[in-house]
Each structure stands twice: as structure tokens, then as C-alpha cells.
Design goal:
five-stranded mixed β-sheet; two-stranded antiparallel ribbon; alpha+beta; 7 strands; riboflavin biosynthesis
């Protein structure tokens, strides 16, 4: 996992990111604990079109879609080049973010960074991410101190 902060002129928020193919129930539980609980997947437009997706859950191996296990199942299915449109149910448990072609060189956002980082190390074509929140529930911004940083002494 990597913490990415997007451009100050954009949202200026911290995000926990990782390659979608490396997501585990433990990683998802940690991401949800230290983030907003809204797990997102950064995915290329061509992959969204191939899979005919808008908001999705994996069709097989999930229940309500809300658990860490169900989130992992959906993110791994998104990352799999073997997935087809029939493998997904429409829902709103994993938020899909359309990656801007050209990545951080074209858009200074967390969705571009998440997927760029995954592709830079040759892992896959989907990035997983979740915005970080401070203890008071507000979005974590670029100024972190040990007392306000939700990731201080974080297990990852």
C-alpha cells in the first residue's frame, strides 16, 4: 500500500492506494478502518466498456457486497483479464473511477496515481484506493502531524 496525496488545486486529499490484484481481506479491512470505507477502483475507460460496467459487485462469491471479503472479490474480479460482463452485478459497493489516459501527466488525481503506480511495477490494469479520514471524520489533507495523521503507527 502507498499513501498518495492529490494536487492542492484538486481535492488535496490523502488516499491509500494499491494494485487491485494484490488486494486481500486484511488489506481491505485496514483500508476501510483508516479510510472513508468507500473502496474505489481506478480503471481504464476501455476496460469499463469491455466489461459494460458502471457500479458493480462481483456476481459470484459475494453476499451483500459490503464486507471486506466481498470488496476483495469484486476488486480482484475487476483486475482479472478473464472477467466478462456476466461476472458482475450492478450495485454501489465498489465505486469505479475512470482513469484519465496519460495518468498523472494528464490529471493530478488519486485515481490516476493509483493505476499509474500499479502499472509502473507491472502488476495490472486496475488500482484500488480509499480516501483517508482524520479522527474527526474530515478528509485528511496534506498537512499531517503525528497527532492528526490517521496513519501514524498504522500497521501498513
Amino acid at each position: 500500500m502507498v499513501v498518495v496525496v492529490d494536487d492542492e488545486d484538486r481535492e488535496n486529499e490523502g488516499n491509500i492506494t494499491m494494485a487491485a490484484s494484490k488486494v486481500t481481506p486484511e488489506a481491505t479491512a485496514s483500508i476501510v478502518k483508516h479510510g472513508t470505507g468507500i473502496v474505489c477502483a481506478s480503471i481504464k475507460e476501455e476496460d469499463l466498456e469491455i466489461l459494460q460496467l458502471s457500479l458493480v459487485d462481483a456476481k459470484h462469491g459475494t453476499t451483500t457486497g459490503v464486507s471486506a471479503h466481498d470488496g476483495v472479490t469484486t476488486v480482484l474480479a475487476l483486475a482479472s483479464k478473464d472477467s466478462k460482463p456476466k461476472d458482475f452485478n450492478c450495485s454501489s459497493h465498489i465505486f469505479l473511477l475512470k482513469y484519465r489516459e496519460g495518468g498523472v501527466l494528464k490529471g493530478a488525481g488519486h485515481m490516476e496515481a493509483a493505476l499509474d503506480l500499479a502499472m509502473l511495477v507491472g502488476l495490472d490494469h486496475v488500482g484500488a484506493l480509499c480516501e483517508i479520514v482524520d479522527d474527526d471524520g474530515s478528509m485528511a489533507r496534506t498537512f499531517f502531524t503525528p497527532h492528526t495523521n490517521p496513519l501514524y503507527n498504522c500497521p501498513f
